[in-house]
Amino acid sequence: MSFKRFNFALIFCAAICAFAPCVVSAQENDKVTESDENWFYGKLIKSISFKNLKSVDSKELEGVTSGFIGRKFSDEVFGNLLDRIYALDFFDEINPEALPGDAKKNTVSIVFSVTERPVVTRITFSGNRQIRTTELKEAVSLKEKDIFVEGKMLVDERSVRDVYLGKGFTNARVTASSKQTPKGVEVNFKVDEGRSTVIAKLDFRGNKVVSGRTLKSKLTLKEAGLINKGAFQESELEADKQAITAYYQNLGYIDAEVIDVTKETAVNEKKNRDELTITFVIVEGSQYTFGGMTFKGNIIFPSEKLNSFVKLKTGAVYNQQKYQESVMAIADLYYENGYTSNRFQPIPMKDTNNKVISYEFHITESVRSHVESISIKGNTRTKEEIIRREIPIESGDIFSKAKLTTGLRNLYNLQYFSAVVPDVVPGSEENLVNLVFSVDEQSTTSIEFGVTFSGVSDPDDLPFALFVKWQDSNFRGTGKSISASSTIATDEQSVSLSFGENWLFGMPISSSISTSFSHSQNTALMLELADNEDSLNSDDYYMDYERWVWSLGFSLGRRWTPVWAILSLSAGINGSLINNVYDEVYIPVDSTIAEYSNKWGWQNSVWTAFSIDDRDINYDPSKGWFASQRLTWYGLMPFETEFFLRSDTKAEKYFTLFNLPVTETWNWKMVFAAYSGLSLLFPTSDSGIGNSSKVYIDGMFNARGWTNIYNKHRGRALWSNILELRMPIVPGVLAVDWFGDAAVIKDSPYELFTNTGISDFYFSTGPGLRFSIPQFPLRLLFANTFKMDENYNVTWENNWKFVLSFNITNK
Questions:
Q1: Where is the signal peptide (predicted)?
Q2: CA torsion angle 443 444 449 454 (round to 10)
């Protein structure tokens, strides 16, 4: 049944007649007046609802009608509303009704009584033998239980045929039909696949300089074989012609051209397919050399500087790609310095006798462009000033591409956004530009949890520790950071809280305060007194003690963001109260334990750190490097027991090995990552370092997989190295990695530098899954550990270990 538009005034008169009994019941009038019939004109529309909905989702209708609620009723408004509803193609009949929205008729409620179109009960395909039904179903927009719309079915008919064309079935025919049943509509797509068309041979005519094999490698179209199906797509033919021309031009043959493409078809009855031979007819021309580039109209930058951006040397074979890169580099030089309105016109000058091509580069310089406005889009949670303060350019400033790039890097490093897209649009005048930053916010609340092996020796104790951490790095959109964490194990329990701020006094000055409380059960080497002389008890060398620690820390930092890197300088102070509880009949060898025996004592430290960060994105880099140095001095008061300096040096390097497009939305990318960290402890001459203050291999972040030596060997020097191959599976979400670790622990820095051999290293390697979401920085690793002797013979542990770790972003 087709829709027919009828006079809505008559419809509403009928609606009023239906409503008349309510009016008559008031016994105020015996008949409806003309003014009563049109009472709804000029009234605010309070609500719009639908009756008799069965398959159509009312929420889908709300998206159409919500824009009319609150508007005054008029012929134009009601006509637009009907147009929107008719355009949905959901209903066979639509009957509107006007009802008072309140007792005084100050508002109107519109109710549509509808008769829905039938639903799609079944979608079938017939005649498809070469392509699976599931693949064809994915290509159509109609789905079972959808409202049947004939227009959609016809569009899907073309979509199914496009699937066949993409597979090389150029003779395929698709016919869509529908059948009404008591339950709804059954849709069938009848396919006549015909013979498939494959490329049997790619040939070239006129090529003398370049071999046909080389030219084939430049084409998207491929011959049918064991690996390639050889599907022919007409749309790729033009792109391949351009690829051949571009290849010749990069070899200096600037006049090269594909003047014709011939196609010959042969029928292969045995394989029931058309086999196509495609021949590209080429005119190569002569090879040219580059005669240089001269500049006209340039005043801002001298010709010598502009020539330094030309990537072709005079006298070298001409290369079209390098020429285009040179033009872009010159344009970028002006652009990066704020000259966005310049005009560039390179004029080629061909010397056909000597086969030389030169360029006269005409530049029309303009004044620097200024930023007229900066706008932010997409931020619903993060306050706008939090975003603006990370962009080192303001309205009225001279435009700078370098500052725009720095702002983009700063915004990504906040880890508040999954995507940041900057755009430069023309301003209200020629030399004004508007900057638009579109952001996609992501969750800034993270929960980290995991298990670490604690290496206990008591069979009644659990040999692992549970770890959980909650953090919100953008609390209520203010850029403040709040976190809480806890560790629970049989021999250790801890809880910590922290609060941080990235900006103070309108400057990139960071501050943080943190506190923690912990309890642990430990063992220490024991010294006994027997018969007035010192001796070690040969039966029991160790004593047990409990350690209680409360800590409080405060830090300040400052960031600088030049174009080439992010520089950070920070410092802080930490104070701890420590109490070691044990039976004083025992005397520990470690005097730093005895100093805190059954009483609270202070342990304080002050630190400073400096870092240089050139990574593109600090939490999931593809290129760049990072280096940092941190120095911490322990022992600020005369009554403390430990006085030593700790040095932590870190270095990272990242670069992309390759980044090859596989599909329109996914690239095969491989990133190489390298890390080295060195921790050294230097005590004063009259002070020792307690075992709890020493460094150790944890098997979770360094020497991953060596969980069996966790906390067993502590020393004053630790060198940890990591190499990784990273392959993103879902960019920004999930990656597959292969890692190799090597770590060594020594009793002193001197021993590390003078007495370290290959046999001292703990090696591990294996695959892993890495979540690169900042709020879910989990790593699932399988590690196989091994050692080497001095002759480089490898001894494997012969077992794979599962390691739960985290992505730690060094800053």
A1: 1-26
A2: 160
